[in-house]
């Protein structure tokens, strides 16, 4: 099957965003390997600009806009990491950024977005309120809407993360990422297809926001009415552009509970001495819960971000 995002698109995006992102390290931990009975290679996007992989897709999307459109600015809705990515990209491009954020978004993320000079509009914590506010701002300003995940330029930018991981660790058997809206998972699956087609792709998803799991079972996008999880970055509904890639290329979705997410997060803090946010711990929680699937394998794990509200730690 031919996909809209090609290998040369990913290559071009990587070259375009390289001056503006970090090539994040791949870390290992012997005690964690012994715990799970596999060799895990953690791609540490918690060390990325803005503290999350979202910088890749956001910067690629803004830099890919034609100059005339870009000059009118960009608008998006996001609970945090994509908001920061678009705010940073707009600042780099010297154009306005209008960000719609739910009132319930973590304070640390609101402050970071404001710090990049973006104009924040707070909304009710529902998809409808996010979309209505974004549409209104778009109409008033002429700014271009950039979806947090359901956008080919965003997917292509996110794909550069797995591309780097595969280049640094070419003998991986498996790659696993978390899934919310699906931009990172779709991008990771495409990089696996193009750069190491022997590799199996999995995802971890919170039980309280399992729309991708249900969609894979049904073969069509199936929404969860009121998603809820400690993994606040994974509450978005699956995008159709992402799902057409994911349903073809991802082997399985593993569900994990909030308790399992917190336990996995704590192990990484304690054993690896790095800060990760709950959404980021989801794939590792999936490995801990399904050790038989990963036993004896070399597994690339994408650690998506480290933007934690330190006043509200779950342990």
UniProtKB/TrEMBL annotation:
Its cofactor is pyridoxal 5'-phosphate. Coiled coil: none annotated. The keyword Lyase applies. Keywords: Lyase, Pyridoxal phosphate. GO terms for molecular function: ATP binding; L-serine ammonia-lyase activity; magnesium ion binding; pyridoxal phosphate binding; serine racemase activity; threonine racemase activity. The keyword Lyase applies. Belongs to the serine/threonine dehydratase family. This is Serine dehydratase. It comes from Roseivirga spongicola. The lineage of its organism: Bacteria, Pseudomonadati, Bacteroidota, Cytophagia, Cytophagales.
């Amino acid at each position: 099957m031919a996909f809209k995002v090609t290998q040369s698109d990913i290559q071009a995006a990587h070259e375009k965003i390289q001056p503006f992102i970090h090539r994040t390290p791949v870390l290992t931990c012997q005690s964690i390997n012994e715990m799970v009975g596999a060799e895990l290679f953690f791609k540490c996007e918690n060390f990325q600009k803005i503290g999350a992989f979202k910088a890749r897709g956001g910067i690629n999307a803004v830099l890919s806009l034609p100059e005339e459109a870009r000059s009118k600015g960009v608008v998006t809705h996001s609970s945090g990491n994509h908001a920061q990515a678009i705010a940073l990209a707009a600042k780099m491009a010297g154009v306005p950024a209008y960000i719609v954020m739910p009132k319930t978004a973590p304070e640390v993320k609101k402050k970071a977005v404001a710090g990049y000079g973006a104009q924040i509009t707070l909304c009710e914590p529902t998809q409808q309120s996010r979309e209505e506010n974004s549409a209104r701002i778009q109409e008033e300003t002429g700014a271009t809407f950039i979806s947090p995940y359901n956008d080919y330029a965003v997917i292509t930018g996110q794909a550069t993360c797995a591309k780097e991981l595969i280049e640094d660790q070419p003998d991986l058997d498996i790659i696993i990422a978390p899934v919310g809206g699906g931009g990172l998972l779709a991008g990771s699956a495409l990089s696996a297809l193009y750069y190491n087609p022997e590799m199996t792709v999995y995802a971890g998803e919170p039980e309280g926001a399992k729309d991708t799991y249900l969609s894979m079972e049904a073969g069509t996008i199936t929404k969860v009415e009121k998603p809820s999880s400690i993994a606040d970055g994974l509450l978005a509904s699956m995008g159709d552009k992402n799902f057409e890639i994911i349903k073809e290329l991802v082997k399985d979705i593993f569900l994990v509970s909030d308790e399992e997410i917190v336990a996995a997060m704590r192990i990484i803090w304690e054993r690896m001495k790095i800060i990760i946010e709950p959404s980021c711990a989801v794939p590792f929680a999936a490995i801990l819960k399904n050790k038989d699937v990963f036993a004896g394998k070399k597994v690339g794990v994408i650690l998506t971000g480290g933007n934690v509200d330190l006043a509200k730690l779950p342990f």
